[in-house]
Write a structure and sequence with these properties.
mainly alpha; Arc Repressor Mutant, subunit A; three-stranded antiparallel sheet
C-alpha cells in the first residue's frame, strides 16, 4: 500500500496539498484504517505526506530544490560507502559484490526491470554494509528509502 500511494503521489495522480482521507484509502485498498495510518506514517517519514495534528494528512509539497538536494546528499553518502567499502571489505564481501554486479548487468541486458530493481537494491545494500560503519549505513539506507518513490 505504501508503494501504491507513493507512486500515485510521485506521478501526480495525487496532487501536492491534496487531503488523504483514511476512510477512502481504507476502502480503496480493502483494509482497516490501521494499516492506512501506518502507511501514512511511512510516507510521512519519506517526506511524501505531511501529517497535521487533528486535521489529517495531505500530500506534501516537494520542491525541485529539495528533491535535488536529497539526490545530491544520496550521491555523497554512496560515495562515502564506496570509499569505505574499497578500504574495508573482506575478500568474500568483494566477491559477493562482484557477483551481484554481474547478475544485475545480465538483467539490464534482458530488460527485466523489476528483477533489476531487486538486484540493484541488494547490490547497494552490500556496498553500504561493506563500509563497516553502522552510522553511515543507517543514514544511507534512510535517505535511499526516502528517495525510492522518485527513483521509479
Amino acid at each position: 500500500m505504501v508503494r501504491a500511494i507513493a507512486d500515485r503521489i510521485v506521478t501526480g495522480y495525487l496532487r501536492p496539498g491534496e487531503r488523504l482521507d483514511e476512510v477512502s484509502l481504507a476502502a480503496r485498498f480493502d483494509v482497516s484504517r490501521t494499516p492506512v495510518r501506518e502507511a501514512l506514517g511511512h510516507l510521512s517519514a519519506m517526506g511524501l505526506v505531511e501529517r497535521r495534528p487533528n486535521r489529517g494528512a495531505i500530500v506534501a509539497v516537494v520542491t525541485q530544490e529539495h528533491l535535488a538536494s536529497m539526490f545530491e546528499s544520496m550521491a555523497e553518502l554512496e560515495a562515502i560507502c564506496a570509499r569505505f567499502s574499497a578500504e574495508r571489505m573482506t575478500g568474500g564481501e568483494r566477491r559477493a559484490l562482484e557477483m551481484e554486479h554481474q547478475a544485475s548487468a545480465r538483467l539490464v541486458q534482458l530488460g527485466a526491470e523489476e528483477d533489476y530493481e531487486y538486484f540493484n537494491t541488494e547490490f547497494h545494500s552490500r556496498l553500504y554494509r561493506g563500509a563497516h560503519n553502522a552510522h553511515i549505513q543507517d543514514l544511507t539506507v534512510t535517505t535511499r528509502s526516502r528517495l525510492a518513490p522518485f527513483r521509479r
